[in-house]
From TrEMBL, chain A:
Matches recorded under Gene3D superfamilies: Helix-loop-helix DNA-binding domain
Superkingdom per UniProt: Eukaryota
Annotated ranges, domain BHLH: 197-247
CDD domains cross-referenced by the UniProt entry: bHLH_AtBPE_like
PROSITE patterns: BHLH (PS50888)
Start and end residues of each stretch annotated as Disordered: 1-22, 62-91, 107-184
Classification via SMART domains: HLH
Biased composition range(s): Polar residues: 1-16
Locations listed in the record: Nucleus
Comp. bias intervals (Basic and acidic residues): 150-165
Predominant location category: nucleus
UniProt name for this protein: BHLH domain-containing protein
Automatic annotation (TrEMBL), chain B:
The organism's place on the tree of life at top rank: Eukaryota
Keyword Translocase: no
Annotated PANTHER family: TRANSCRIPTION FACTOR IBH1 (PTHR33124:SF40), TRANSCRIPTION FACTOR IBH1-LIKE 1 (PTHR33124)
Domain named IBH1-like N-terminal: residues: 4-71
Keyword terms: Transcription, Transcription regulation
Species of provenance: Hibiscus sabdariffa
Protein name: IBH1-like N-terminal domain-containing protein
UniProt cross-references to Pfam families, sorted A to Z: IBH1_N (PF26576)
Transmembrane in keyword set: no
Length: 357, 165
């Protein structure tokens, strides 16, 4: 039978192109085959459709997933018009919803492939119909035009598309949405460019949005240390939240430390900063010399007092322990050392601080 | 050190504020209450200087500055009518946007599970000004906020280490 021969040829075309990408030329051949398939038995509409159906499931999936498949749509609309009468299933919406239900909880494409193949192959023919139905405003002549920008958009989106092994759950979902105005949110939906549905501005915008969100999540993963290994959006978000909380807490503790520090020097550091902005190194320069001259003479008595009185529970113990240790360490030294003029030590300290920063 | 980097801008501003804060001579400078007061001022100064040091105007910087201003004005109880009105306007806006958020889908279309909504709302509470943003912008703001927080922590740590030794 000619249709069988046609299918065999399409199969060979598909297998030839299976390894690499479907080139335009091969897709043209493909569309020719489909043309032949569709046009040949014009008298017997149902048989051509079943010939399409008889494509083995992987080929049907390949048919759906081929990136140049919109050309099929572009080529076929005039023929679809002929078939509209015969292709009208009484349970179209039922099929779509069944498909949606099948693909609802599919975590992997493999699992749902088998389930989806039979309804999908039916959807192949239903899709052009859906296209026609869902765009009632467009005339038949303008439909190929509509499909072309789709192809362009698709080729652009192809660069953005990350994962090729994604189920077509999104397709069925958008179709279900269009059909039944169902706004229910599926727990987890894979992103997939749906042929025939790409002309829908909603799905395009949604897809672009989703890709933006994914890109930003990746950025965040890089920012937060230790987030690269975690997979899964929820855990990454938890990690991000923890990181932000810890950073905010660190700022609080550091400001508490700075409040407790009692600098006796009038540090007019901004003038020093502006003058010496050129000759600075950004390194962890340990300030060795200056701390010894830190004048804590006056504050010592007070410090001893408040160290005992300080009862804040929220503070980190190690921070305050260090404060105490440092103060105790400095006290004997301060009594020995004399205090230089404030200007000198201010500039020296400023230099050290700048080098550290 | 790059003189025009976020780090140096923040450091300059923050140190200036620190000098101002330490320049006030209270009666007993080391009492716990005085230290606590200073801590609040220093924290506010840190947030403020960070918000001002940012080159590109972000939502969270405006929210931080607005919170600081409203808090300081409230404490002094000098609530001008304009300030009250602006506060009410902003509250109305956030309430309106919250309603919008509930009806439209924020993470929706993204198709992520409902658990993400909870974490997203938690993130909104953490990031200043996050309540009135959609998910996409929220992630953007979070990234910038984390970057600024890390610079803040680094600079403050160095200053604190320097002055506490």
């Amino acid at each position: 039978m000619e249709s069988n021969a046609g299918t065999k040829e399409t199969r060979s075309n598909l297998t030839a192109s299976d390894g690499g990408e479907v080139t335009a030329f091969e897709s043209l051949q493909f569309t020719d085959e489909i043309h032949r398939l569709i046009l040949a038995p014009t008298t017997d509409n149902s048989s051509s459709f079943t010939a399409l159906l008889e494509l083995p499931p992987p080929q049907a999936v390949e048919l759906l997933h081929s990136p140049d498949s919109p050309k099929l749509i572009a080529a076929s609309p005039p023929n679809v018009e002929d078939f509209q009468g015969s292709f009208r299933f009484p349970s179209n919406s039922g099929l779509i919803e069944r498909d949606a239900r099948f693909s609802l909880f599919s975590g992997e494409a493999n699992n749902s492939n088998e389930k989806r193949n039979s309804p999908e192959s039916k959807n192949v023919s239903a899709n052009p119909e859906k296209n026609v139905k869902s765009e009632p405003a467009e005339t038949e002549s303008s439909q190929p035009l509509v499909s072309d920008p789709t192809v362009e958009k698709r080729s652009i989106k192809r660069k953005d598309r990350e994962n090729k092994v994604k189920g077509s759950t999104k397709k069925s979902k958008t179709v279900a949405n269009e059909n039944s105005e169902d706004a229910e949110k599926l727990p987890y939906v894979h992103v997939r460019a749906r042929r025939g549905q790409a002309t829908d501005s909603h799905s395009l915008a949604e897809r672009a949005r989703r890709e933006k969100i994914n890109a930003r999540m990746k950025l965040l993963q890089e920012l937060v240390p230790g987030c690269n290994k975690i997979s899964g959006t929820a855990l990454v978000l938890d990690e991000i939240i923890n990181h932000v909380q810890s950073l905010q807490r660190q700022v609080e503790f550091l400001s508490m430390r700075l409040a407790a520090v009692n600098p006796r020097i009038d540090f007019n550091l901004d003038s020093v900063f502006t003058s010496e902005s050129g000759s600075l190194m950004d390194s962890n320069f340990p300030s060795l010399v200056m701390p010894a001259i830190w004048p804590e003479v006056q504050g010592n008595g007070h410090r001893q007092q408040y160290q005992h009185q300080w009862h804040l529970d929220t503070l980190q113990q190690p921070v305050w322990g260090r404060e105490e240790v440092c103060n105790n360490y400095i006290t004997p030294e301060n009594s020995l050392l004399t205090y230089d003029s404030s200007a000198n030590s201010a500039t020296l300290q400023a230099n050290h601080l700048k080098m550290e920063l | 050190m790059n003189p025009s980097s976020l780090k140096s801008r923040f450091a300059t501003r923050f140190l200036r504020a620190l000098t101002q804060i330490h320049a006030r001579k209270p009666i007993c400078p080391s009492s716990p209450t005085e230290i606590f007061r200073r801590y609040r001022r220093i924290k506010a100064a840190a947030d403020k200087s960070m918000a001002y040091s940012v080159r590109s105007r972000r939502t969270w910087t405006g929210a931080v500055l607005w919170k600081l201003r409203s808090r300081s004005c409230g404490r002094r109880s000098v609530k001008t009518s304009t300030l009250v009105k602006s506060q009410q306007a902003i509250e109305k806006k956030t309430r309106h946007e919250k309603q919008n958020k509930n009806t439209t889908t924020t993470t929706g279309g993204h198709g992520v599970g409902f658990g993400v909504e909870a974490t997203a709302s938690e993130l909104r509470e953490l990031v200043p000004g996050g309540e009135a943003m959609d998910y996409c912008n929220l992630l953007d703001e979070t990234a910038h906020y984390i970057k600024c927080l890390t610079t803040q922590v680094k600079v403050m740590k160095k200053i604190a280490d320097f002055y506490s030794l």
